[in-house]
């Protein structure tokens, strides 16, 4: 009978499987395992130095990792695991193809200062990926509209506020039509009064089903926007679950004391 067959659960978009990484003698990621389904928003929280940014950077192979494996849509990230157990770095072309699917936005927006806002969005799809300017321009204008900056399209980054620059950086990452967006403390460098406008943009992207992994210290935001929250400390994943479980019923003592500081 059909109800004896378990419903098919779609494979997660991102699988992080027992990932370990060291910087020299220092082990900064220890057997971290996490999954992110398409449409999910995973927030990584935890004390400074716990490995959140490093983990995020491993997901688009800005950092290599020595143990475990990360896959995106079934494709391993950066590393090929050979049948005899050895590991081999993938080719530059394979790594570039992966990065085209994974957008990343940093704490410091890193916009190109000599290009206007619209050119900041169109330059990578056109010059790096050889797409025709017409459709890319249309896509870019729609994204600028979405982050509320269509009227600034001919401004240069230096003419914009920090919050506006960060919204441009988010639109730029989306112009590549990534399957996954990584956001690394994107509000940490902003004046407090500019944080809200950037968080609002991210919240609207989440509502539209954009899959994201977010490193943040904004606990109220993480609670509101995430489908799941992962707490890290000293390179380990300590606890993960729904925002309700993590914020209202944390199990681990470490997480409880971390939360105390945000109440
Ligand atoms: P978090 O994002 O949780 O603050 P990070 O991932 O930035 O933590 O850092 C985790 C640990 O890795 C820290 O001890 C940090 O000093 C170390 N680390 C990060 N990047 C480097 C690097 N490029 N070289 C050496 N150590 C690093």
From TrEMBL:
Protein name (record): Arginine ABC transporter ATP-binding protein
GO MF annotations in UniProt: ABC-type amino acid transporter activity; ATP binding; ATP hydrolysis activity
PANTHER family the UniProt entry points to: AMINO ACID IMPORT ATP-BINDING PROTEIN (PTHR43166), GLUTAMATE_ASPARTATE IMPORT ATP-BINDING PROTEIN GLTL (PTHR43166:SF9)
Topology term for the membrane: Peripheral membrane protein
Residues in ABC transporter domain copies: 14-259
Record carries keyword Nucleotidyltransferase: no
Family annotation (CDD domains): ABC_HisP_GlnQ
Location relative to the cell: Cell membrane
Keyword field: Amino-acid transport, ATP-binding, Cell membrane, Membrane, Nucleotide-binding, Transport
Family named by the database record: Belongs to the ABC transporter superfamily.
Top-level lineage group: Bacteria
GO cellular component annotations of the record: plasma membrane
